[in-house]
Write a structure and sequence with these properties.
Blueprint: E1 10-11, E2 20-30, E3 36-46, E4 55-58, E5 63-69, E6 72-73, E7 77-79, E8 82-85, E9 95-103, E10 113-117, E11 120-124, E12 143-153, E13 159-162, E14 165-171, E15 176-182, E16 187-188, E17 194-197, E18 200-207, E19 213-220, H1 229-246, E20 254-260, E21 267-268, E22 273-277, H2 290-306, E23 314-315, H3 321-340, H4 343-365, E24 377-378, H5 387-403, H6 411-426, E25 430-431, H7 433-442, H8 448-456, H9 458-461, E26 467-475, E27 480-488, E28 503-510, E29 516-517, E30 532-536, E31 540-545, E32 553-556, E33 565-567, H10 572-581, H11 585-605, H12 618-629, H13 635-642, H14 647-652, H15 659-676, H16 678-688, H17 698-721, H18 725-736, H19 740-752, H20 757-768, H21 773-784, H22 793-801, H23 811-824, H24 826-829, H25 835-850, H26 852-859, H27 870-884, H28 891-901
Parallel strand pairs: 2-12, 19-20, 20-22, 23-25, 26-33
Antiparallel strand pairs: 1-24, 2-3, 3-9, 4-8, 5-6, 5-9, 7-8, 10-11, 12-15, 12-16, 13-17, 14-15, 18-19, 21-22, 26-27, 27-31, 28-29, 28-30, 28-32
Helix pairs in contact: 1-2, 2-3, 3-4, 3-5, 4-5, 5-6, 6-7, 7-8, 10-11, 11-13, 13-17, 15-17, 16-17, 17-18, 17-19, 18-19, 19-20, 21-23, 25-26, 25-27, 26-28, 27-28
This protein binds (3S)-3,7-diaminoheptanoic acid and zinc ion.
Amino acid sequence: MYREGQATAIRREDYTAPAFWIDTVDLTFDLDPAKTRVLNKMRLRRNTDLPTQALRLDGEELNLARVLVNGAGTSFKMDGRQLVLENLPEGPEPIELEIFTTCNPAKNTSLTGLYVSNDSFFTQCEAEGFRRITYFLDRPDVMASFTVTLRGDKRKYPVLLSNGNLVEQGDLEEGRHFAKWVDPHKKPCYLFALVAGQLVAREQRILSRTGTEHLLQVFVRPGDLDKTEHAMNSLMASVAWDETRFGLPLDLERFMIVATSDFNMGAMENKGLNIFNTKLVLANPATATDVDFGNIESVVGHEYFHNWTGNRITCRDWFQLSLKEGLTVFRDQEFSQDMAGSSSARAVKRIEDVRLLRTVQFAEDAGPMAHPVRPDSYVEINNFYSVTIYEKGSEVVRMMQTLAGSEGVSGRAGFAQGMKLYFERHDGQAVTCDDFAQAIADANPQSELARVLPQFKVWYSQAGTPRLMTHGEYNAEAQTYTLTLAQSCLATPGQPDKVPFVIPVNMGLLDTQGHALPLQLRGEAQASGHNRTLVLTQTSESFVFVNVASVPVPSLLREFSAPVLLEANLTDAELLTLLAHDSDAFNRWEAGQRLALNRALSCIRAGADPALSPVLDEAYITAMREVLRHPDLDAAFKELTLTLPSEGYIAEQLTEVDPQQVHAVREAMRGQLAQALQADWAWAYEQYRVTGPYSPDAVSAGRRALSGMALAMLCVAARTSKDGMWPDKAYQAFMVAHNMTDRFNALSALVVSRHALAKEALAKFHALFKDEALVIDKWFALQAAAPDHGGQVLPSVRLLMQHPDFTLRNPNRARSLIFSYCSANPAAFHRTDAAGYVFWSERVIELDAINPQVAARLARAMDRWRKLAPAYRSAAHMALERVAAKAELSSDVREVITRALAE
Ligand code: B3K
Ligand code: ZN
C-alpha cells in the first residue's frame, strides 16, 4: 500500500536467494493500542552462497528507537522503507541483532500488521504485513524459530495468544500479565500471529489415529460461544480427513481458531493460530443459512489443510502463491465433496465450484487483470490473491490428479503417491510450483502426466481460458464416430501468442435413447467402459471410435475435467438427451444450462423484446418440469438445474454487453418459468419443505434450497396474476421460520418479487436481529442486490449508507452494501445515467484512504468495462479516469486502475 513515489513491478525472473538467514526470533510485545512496543531479538547468519552484502530489512509505518548488533550500538541507514545495515561482521558466524520499534495498532485501519478490533489485538501478516510489526526479512523463504512474549493489561487482555505452545505465563506489576509462546516449527514470518483480548473458547480434546492427544480451541467474544459448535465439528472433521485421505496428521499439541469481525478476507492459516472472519466461524440455526454452514466447513478445512500445504512446505516467493493456494483449494473442495456423501451431493458441490470458476475466474482471465496461475510480475501482491491463483490453481491440481493414473492405478491413488513424495522431498522447505509438479509426476512414472509434464506446465505460465472446439462425425456404414477436438486461446495482457495446453477431456457416448455406449477407440482390441479421458495436446486431434452401432450423442468434459470454454454446438435434441439421461450429473446440469443460455443469447443477439415474444419454448419448459418432478433426482440438483445462468455469465458470452438488455431477458425468462410451472412450484414447495429440527446436512439443505426457490418463483408468478396468496404465505413463512435459511428465503422471495410486504418484512428482520452483525450484513446485502425497477436501488443504497448500522471501516459491512450493489447487481449498477459509476468511483477513493486491500477489490467491479455497449463504456471510462486522476492512491488501487485503462 505504498503511497510515496512510483510503485514498481516485482518480476519473477529477478528472484535471488536472501543474503542472510534468520535462525531464531525472540519477540516481546508491550501491548498498548496507541503505542505498542516491540523488542525484536534475532539471530542471523550470512548466506555464504552469495557475495557479502548489506542486510536490508523491510519495515513499514514503524517508529525505530534502537538497533544493537551483538549487544553494541551500530550505524545504519534508511533506504526508502528499508533499514540497511552495511557493517555487519563478515564471515559465517551468527550475529545477534536487536531492534526496538513502536507502532500504532489503534490507528491501523488497513487491517494488515497489528491492529485493534473491538478493543482486542489481532494480526494479519500474509503477504507482507509482518514488516508493519517489526523490521525483518519479510519474504517466505526465510524460515525462523519464533519465541513470543506478550505483555498487557490483565483486565483488558485476559487472553494472550501466539503460535505454538504456551510455555510460561504469570502476573506483572500494575495489573499487567504476560504469556510466553514457543513455536516448535520453523516458519516464514507471514505465518506469525498474535491475539490479545477478552475472549472465551470452546475446547475439545482429540486423539489422533496414532494415539497422540491434541487440544482444539475456538476463541470468540463472550456471548458468541453458542455459535461455535459447527466450526469445532468442522475442525475435527478436517483433522480426521487429512489423516485418512493424505496421511497428514496434526503436528501441534494445540490448534487454535480465533474469530474477529474486522478482517480483510475469509481467514488466515497462521501456524497453530488461525485467525478467522466471524462470518466463517459463527453459526447457529437461527442466524446462519445453509450456505454459511457449508462455507464454514470448507474454510475451516482450507485453513487447517494449509498446515501441511503452505505451512510445512511453503512458497519460495509470492509468485508461487498457487503452490499453496491452488493445492489447498483443491484439498478443501475434495474434503467438502467427501463430507457431502452421496455421489449426487458430490456432483452438487462440483457444480457449485465450477459455477464460481466460470463466472468469476473466466471473467478475470478475459479481462485486464488476467494473469497466469504463476504470474510473471506484480506491483501489489495483495491484488494476486485472485480466483485465478485459487480456483484455476485448484483446477490445475485436479487435472494433475486426473492425469496421474496409469495401468491399474487410479488418478486419485497416483496423486496421493505424488503428495507423499512431495512431503518426503520438501518438508520444511520453501519451494516452487515446479517442485510440486515434478514430485507428482516422478511418483507416477507410467502416467500420462509424466509423459507430458513440460507441456502440462503451460497451465502455470499461460493466462487466458482455452477454447475447446469439438466436432463429431458419424459414419453409419463404417460404424465409426470421429471426434475432433481443437483448441485456441485468446491473447491476454503481455501474452499475444499462445501455445497449446494439455487438456484432459473426460467423455462418454450415449445413444439417442440415452443409453451409454461402450467405448472402443480404433486400434483397441475390444470395447472397455463407458467413460474415457482423451488427452488433447495438439492444436487439433481426431479420435476415432469404432463399432458405434448408432448415431451417438457425445457427453464431453464430464465433471468439467479441464477449465476450458467448451464449444460443442450440440443440438437441442442432443442437449435434451443429456439432460434426461447422462450418467454424469455435472453434464446433465450443464445441458440444462446450455439450453437456457442458447435461448437467452438468441433473444439478445436478435435484439428481440422479451416482453413481446417469449424467450423460452415448450421443449425447454417441459424439460424443466420433468427435472422438477423427477422422482429420483436430489432436491439440491434440481435447484441448481432450474436456476438460470446468471446475468454475469450470460454477459461473458457476448462481445458487447448491454446490461439492461441482459437483465430484461433473464427476468423475462424467470417470469416465464415461474408462470409456466406454477402448479409444479406449488407442489415442490409443499413436497420439499423441511419441518423437523434443523440440520445443515446436504439433503436437508438441498430441500430447503428447492422449497425456497419454489416460494420465490410463486411470488414472482403472483406479480402477473395479482394473486396475493403466495406473498402472504411467504410473509407467514418469514414470520414463523425456525431457522435462518427458511426465514431468509422467504424474505428474499418478497424482495425479489418486489411485493409491498417486503418493506414490512425487512423492518421486522432488522428489529429481530439488530444485535447480530452478520445477520445485519445480510439485511444490507439483500437490499443492495434487489432487482432494480426505475432505478430505485442506488438511492436506497445511498440512504442505507446513512443508516446508523453502516460503516465503511468494517470490511464485512462495506462488502454487504457497497460490493453487493457494484458487483452483484449489474442492472442496478450499470445505469444509463452513469450514476452507478460515479458512486463506485466515490467509494473506491473513500475506501482507499481507509483500507487499500478492500478498495482494490471494489475497484475490480469495473474490470469488464471495455465489453460494455458504447454509452456505458464511455461513462465507465470517465469514472476510471476520475479515480486514476487522484494523486493519493494506494499501489493496490493504482495497479487495478492502471491495468483497466491500459490498451
Ligand atoms: N492465505 C490467506 C490469504 C491471505 C491474503 C492476504 N492478502 C487465506 C487463505 O487463502 O487461506
Ligand atoms: Zn488459502
